[in-house]
Amino acid sequence: MMASLPRRIIKETQRLTHEPVPGISAIPDEQNARYFHVDVMGPSESPFEGGTFKLELFLPEDYPMAPPKVRFMTKIYHPNIDKLGRICLDILKDKWSPALQIRTVLLSIQALLSAPNPDDPLANDVAEQWKVNESHAIETAKAWTRLYAMKS
Amino acid sequence: MIVTSWLGYLLGTQVAPVLYFVLERTFYNSLGRLHVAADSSVPDQRNCTTACTMGNACLCRDQASAEEEDHGNAYTSNPQPVPASGWTNAPPVNNHTAVVTTPDQGLPGDNRDRRRPPRRPAPQPPVARVVGMRPRKVTIDELVLDTLAVIRTLVDNEQEPPYAMLALHDIAEKEAGWLSVVHSLINVIPMDDPLGPAVIILLLDECPLPTKESILKLSSSLSLCKRISRMGLQHPARHRNIAAVLGCIAEKLAGPNSVSLLTEGNLEYLLANLDPQCHPAVILHSIIALEKFSQTSENKATIAKAGVTSHLVILEKWVNDPKFLRRQVGFCAQWCLDNLFLKDGRTLTYESADLKGINVLLNSNDTSEYLKISPHGLEARSDASSFESVRCTFCVDAGIWYYEVLVVTAGVMQIGWATKDSKFLNHEGYGIGDDEFSCAYDGCRQLIWYSAKSRPHAHEAWKEGDVLGFLLDLDNKQIIFSLNGNNLPPERDVFRSARSGFFAAASFMSFQQCIFNFGAEDFRYPPPVNFSKFNDHAELSSEDKVILPRHKKLALLRELSFKENCCNLCFDNQADTELRPCGHRDLCMTCAIQIESCPICREPIQQRVEVT
């Protein structure tokens, strides 16, 4: 539905292009204006520092009444992100508000990288590691960042 | 309806019925309140904070338990692979039941185009083993063919997936298994099954995403190049499958991994496949693969630089070829030249398209996003993995109306009638006939669709060149579908929920294409009743008679400007509503009535008051 693309999406896209968020890029797909190719830089002082994480973001038919669908495409060792890249984040589920936007969602995800929450895990084994041996978990997260999120 | 992928596009409400978890449990995560308050439009998170600390009965945990296998160790030995898509109700498939063929078996030495064996019953479901039956040894090739054989019977997202698919999914969890599955798809999917390439998409969608290493291994084991392309004439099915596999993976991995898949050899191979001497099916899927690679801009530049357009301008001439396979090649070549790989000095087809005498088109503003509509507006095709839909530009409320469709591909399409209320849920696999406001004919699976339920009909399966007739009799409230002039009994169900406002409409599974005739040309099988033609009653301004290429359309959208004081949610209407008791404004009534709590402060809304 190209011409019937909601103005809301056009507006957000324009703003993302003209006032990009530092450390985050979200580029609409050439074929599908509801699909965004996203790069999130790992936040400094986190195990993900130095990595660039690819995500995909899709705005469903009923956006903004329903949240965007977001998924990590780059492998990441994080207790709230599972191996399919799915993200455990309340604002993407029951705490969604139509006043939130693509940019705020991506900022929240970047914040999630700074503050993993093993008490609310999506990846059980990772969360377990995070709780039992945090420093080891952080080392693993750093190693994965080097392995999957940095250009060789 | 088509079963898009059990894994679903992403986790979300639409996937919920697919997962066997109880998704109704609420879940909280304390992280939503972090660091986002800097943006003025972020809702006040205070309420959230209290909720967040209440508990961590995260539904995700249930899902995670179904996926206890470590992301990172996915390729190390794992005695009990667990299906990652969350099929917790199915016992894990024991590795020993599947004889994993080594990747070598799929190497270029083994080039026979194996024929599809006669249809046989699906293999014993794993349950049989629980009661002590001896497991039958099943090869990956057999599992792939089993999937192909049962794919027509999959009509419901909530249906249990066939055992063959579950088993393949498990095998593909490990790198060696994934490679074997891919090689098997290449080796055994036969040429003559109209759903062959679609099954490649379906199965690869089910499998985990390959790593960069797997991709490199696949590339090196196929060792594609110009020379290999020449073998396509002897083994067209194999080479069509290779192209389809490459395209599918390129699409799934859009980004850096798609760049690493487009090796010099793979690019050379795909371009060599565009030689008009190659088998048209190989050419077709090579064009589509290049199109899918181009979803990554770096690849797009590489492909353009390699001179793809010079091949496409030759193939574009096949766009009206009487041979349907060549016609598909022409369609895709032209679409690429108009939308993707622009060539200096070439006129975009829409600029020179002659639409004189044509008063009804497929509506390019009333279609799901991936459908390809020809510049003449009467032919459509999908190469996406979603279920793409479109309505025509003309709407009828009374009388008797008839249109025809020429079948170009014999795979799954659902064609018929729909009102504006019918939704195009392309990513969920729902289209025309999948709600109560539409009714559709599916000649591949031989079904009539209404309200997402299907019933078999008496026609034989459609084939290329067949002509479908669609008669809508609003006086007697009935729809009559016909195949080459043979009528089915009237359908009446849709009139329970829709009385008027009907459009011709259709949905397309991957790689399907057809041509519409709304009466600008003579009908092949006019029904023996007094009917009207859309084309005689409709009118289109010259402005509306244009099917713009996507890049042109997006450019127009980017220039759109916004009024002052418009609703902060939809940006369509004036902000004219105040929410009480919180007092927040900046939104319109249309949006306000869709929400129960204030989008800014989350206070429950008791009253919506119009303010000017």
Q: Please, could you describe this protein's structure?
A:
The complex is a heterodimer of chains A (152) and B (612). Chain A has 152 residues and is α+β, with helices and mostly antiparallel strands. A four-stranded antiparallel beta sheet of chain A has the order 1-2-3-4. In chain A, helix 3 crosses helix 4. The longest helix of chain A is centred in the C-terminal third of the chain and has 15 residues. Chain A starts with 6 loop residues before the first helix and ends with a helix. The relative contact order of chain A is 0.17. The mean pLDDT of chain A is 89. By secondary structure, chain B is an alpha+beta fold. Chain B is 30% helix and 14% strand. Chain B is built from 20 helices and 18 strands. The radius of gyration of chain B is 26 Å and the shape is globular. Chain A: Keywords: ATP-binding, Nucleotide-binding, Transferase, Ubl conjugation pathway. Chain A: InterPro entries: UBC (IPR000608), UBQ-conjugating_AS (IPR023313), UBQ-conjugating_enzyme/RWD (IPR016135). Chain A: Pfam families: UQ_con (PF00179). Chain A: GO terms for molecular function: ATP binding; ubiquitin conjugating enzyme activity. Chain A: This is Ubiquitin-conjugating enzyme E2 N. Chain B: It comes from Branchiostoma floridae.
